[in-house]
Amino acid sequence: MPRPSEISIDLDALVHNARLARTLAGSARLLAAVKGDAYGHGMLACGQTLSPLVDALAVAFVEEAITLREHGVEAPILIMEGPFDAEDLAAIKQHEFATVIHSQGQIELLAQEGISPDNSLWLKVDTGMHRLGLSMSEVDPALNRLTAMGVTDITLMTHLAMAESPEAALTVTQLRRWEAIIQSRPLKTSLWNSAGLLGHLAGKSDWVRPGYMLYGGHPGHRFDAAPLKPVMAFTSRIMAVRDIARGESVGYGGHWQAARDSRIATVSVGYADGYPRTATNGTPVWVDGHICPLVGRVSMDMLTVDVTDLPATSPGAPVELWGPRLSVDTVAQHADTIGYELLTRLPARIPRRWVSSS
Ligand SMILES: *Cc1c(COP(=O)(O)O)cnc(C)c1O
Fold first, then answer.
1. Atom of ligand 1 at shortest distance to CA of 60?
2. Which of 71, 96, 274, 281 is the most buried (most CB within 10 A)?
3. pLDDT band of 118, cuts 50, 70, 90
4. What is the pTM of this model?
C-alpha cells in the first residue's frame, strides 16, 4: 500500500478564481501566470484549464511555452524573462510567442537576429524594483530602435516590489515613475499582479498579470476576505499515536517539551515532502476536523502533532497540511516564508491528482 500522502488539485477552484480575476479586471485583458509549474499545481493541467478563460498565459522561459504549445494549449503565451540567446529568439519567432524585453542585451539580440512584426513585445521598465527592466532614460531610444526594426505591437510593463502595500513609499515612488513613463506614449500598459488586482491599485494596467490568486492564495493580509478558493489540498493520514508523560520531549533536539501529559500523533509527511522544516511549534495542522499544533522538529519524512485535545484520534485519521481547510498562507507565516514558496517547491515524490467535475 502506498503511503497516504497526496496533493489534490481542484481545477474547478482554479476556474472559480480565474472568473473572479476576470471580474476584477473589468475591461483590462487578463494574463494568467503559470510559471513555476503553475505555482506547483501542474503547468499543463492548469494551462489547459486556463487557456480558454484568459487572454494569455505567462511563463518565465521559452522551454515552458513550447511545452504548453506541444500539449495543445492555444492561448497566446508571454515569455516573462525574454530570450536568453538566439535559439530562444528563433523559437519565439517560430511559435509567435509574446516576449518581454528587459535589457539592452536583448535589444541587441533582436537587432542581430531580426524580429517578426507578428511578435508582441513587452518592454519592461525598471521603476524601482531593480531586478529587471530598462532604466527610464533608456525607454525612448529602445522604442525608436524597436520601431525601426518593424515592431508594431509594444506593451509597456513594470513590476512593483510591494504591490500589497499601496501606501508604502516605494509603491508611491514606483507609481509616480510609471505615470511618467506611460504618459505621452500611446502604448498598451501592464502593471497589476494579484495584489494590484485584488487591491484595485492605482496606476494604469491595460493588461493584468495575476498568478498567486488564481491558485487561491492571498498575497497579503489585507486581501484575506477575497472569496478565493484554494486549488491545492496537501493531505495525509495519522500513522501512529502515543501517550507521553509531562516533561517528555518530542522529536530531534528534544526542543519541544510536554507541559502536560500529552497524546502525540505522527504524520508521514516531512521536509523531503516539501513541508517546511522551519515550521515552528504551534504551526496549525488540520486533523480530522480540528486544528492541532505541530510539536517538535519536522523530520525528513514525518512530523508530529499534539492531539491531546482529540483523545479519539487514531492511526488512519485524515490530515490536511494545507488546503481548503487550512490556508497555506497561515502555515507559511509560522514557517517564516510565503505560501508561494511552499506551493512551488513540492517534490515530485508526492503523487499529484487533478480533479474536476467537468
Ligand atoms: C510572477 C509574476 C506576476 C504574478 O505575480 P502574483 O503575485 O503571483 O500575482 C506578475 N508579473 C510578473 C512580472 C511576475 O514575474
1. 15
2. 274
3. confident
4. 0.96
